[in-house]
Amino acid sequence: MSSVKKNIAWSLSSNVSPLLAGLILFPKIIAAYGLEQFGLLTLAWAFIGYFSLFDLGLSRALTQKVSDYMSKDKSPQEIAQLIRTGFISMWLLGILGGLVLWLCSPLILNHFLKISDALQADSLQAFGLLALSIPLVVHTAGLRAVLDALHLFKSTSLIRTVLGVGTFLAPYLASLVSPTLTSAVISLIITRLITWLLYLYAVYHSKILIFKTKLFNLEQLKSLLQFSGWMTISNIISPLMEYMDRFMIASILGVVATSYYVGPTEVIFKLFIIPGSIAGVLFPLFSKTWQKDPIHTAHLLKQGFLYTLLLLFPASVLLVFFATDWLSLWLTPEFAEQARLVVCWLTIGVLINSTAQIVFAKVQGSGRSDWTAKLHLAEVLPYLGLLYACLYWWGIAGAAVAWCIRVSIDLIGLLVFTKKINPDNFKVLHLPLWTLLLSVGLLIPSVFNASLQIRLIEAFLILTMYLLILIKVLKADGMLEKIMQALRSKRST
């Protein structure tokens, strides 16, 4: 197995335990905190994710620049100084982000969200404490960026496992002591602190910072900001569009409705494990090869796109065709009735957006973060208008439809950019794109809630077709022969 595939395998494996933890603990967390407090907890998770934008794109820039320095054989001292400059900048930005959250949370909680009077005081205290975690979150992104640039994916994968499991386990353990939002948030802060310490140890253990240099270099900061400038806009707008549905649901339909939306969302969005792992490995490779070896870049792009799609599709089929069944078993029949359409549309959107993440990594790895930022700028206002209209027409299912439409437009824009950067790179995507269109077309019938017998037949036929396509792709890529050789070798031993 090549180093690229090993790194992807490590990234994927790091998410198995968090996925299992979420599946096991989600019902227990909802039961412990109740629907309204659980809805607020999901917003706390969203706040942590959104306020990580205060790194202003420096984490991505740090990965790109460290990879670039290493490919150009820059001195270890220059690389160490670049990293220290990035770290100090990110600490300062994280403190600023925490201050903004601390100042804004009373306004958001009191005036924009529908929260019962009984939870107002606890919510204000909890979100005030949450602001303390933002500097750690921002600097953690920088630490991970360095490990990614050094291709130390084993270390990042193990630490991400701790964070992923802790995100669910910590609030559950806190509920055994005191089932309040404040105790849940304190447990999240402790989890983030442990994660930060582990990343910090991994970076210093890599010995990339053993060389004595200045703590800060203004010219290197300018270099980082030059790359991250447009990426900052993407980092602000992209999470805004990612999390705005939750806040608009809480504002328009109430915090309880957010629970019906976020519950399945947290499961379905775990599918992003696959494209996130693949794109995270490919991004530094795109940065190194897009000019020196465009043919290899095109090969990586095609494989990343196609394997993302093929890995996600069977799980997508099971999630959408049996949404009512697994939601009823996992949570309750009432929850399943409220969330079934959300599952169907979000899963289709995740399949589309997952392939877009590979193309996004290619565009940004080619140094065109300005294009992706302009695309997000063009999307944000139409998306917010569409989201409001869809919520008004179809309730929480409308939010999923709006998101699905937006990510489809996002993919189209990224494909246009890919063609502008290198037409040959776009040509290799013809087969993967037709495969994506076929996959989406096969999933859409799941929106209509047929009987279990019909859904079983549909799923069986679709997965049989998928298996035939998978065998053909593996054979064309030479992977089928490698798998057969491995099986024969195992049998002989």
Give an overview in words.
The protein contains 20 helices and no strands. The chain is mainly α and 493 residues long. It folds into 2 domains: 1-229, no CATH class; 253-493, no CATH class. The protein starts with a helix and ends with a helix. The model has no long low-confidence stretch (mean pLDDT 83). InterPro entries: Poly_Biosynth_Transport, Polysacc_synth. This is O-antigen transporter.
Number of strands: 0
Helix content: over 70%
User: Helix and strand string, N-terminal first?
Assistant: HHHHHHHHHHHHHHHHHHHH
Beta percentage is under 5%
The biggest beta sheet, please? none
List low-confidence stretches.
none
The best one-word shape is: globular
For the structure shown, list the relevant keywords.
globular, mainly alpha, 2 domains, transmembrane helix, 20 helices, 493 residues, 86% helix
Structure at a glance:
This protein is mainly α and 493 residues long. Helices cover 86% and strands 0% of the residues. Helix 12 (294-321) runs antiparallel to helix 19 (452-477).
Topology:
Blueprint: H1 3-13, H2 16-51, H3 58-71, H4 76-111, H5 117-130, H6 134-149, H7 153-177, H8 181-205, H9 218-252, H10 255-268, H11 273-289, H12 294-321, H13 323-330, H14 333-365, H15 369-394, H16 396-421, H17 423-427, H18 430-443, H19 452-477, H20 479-492
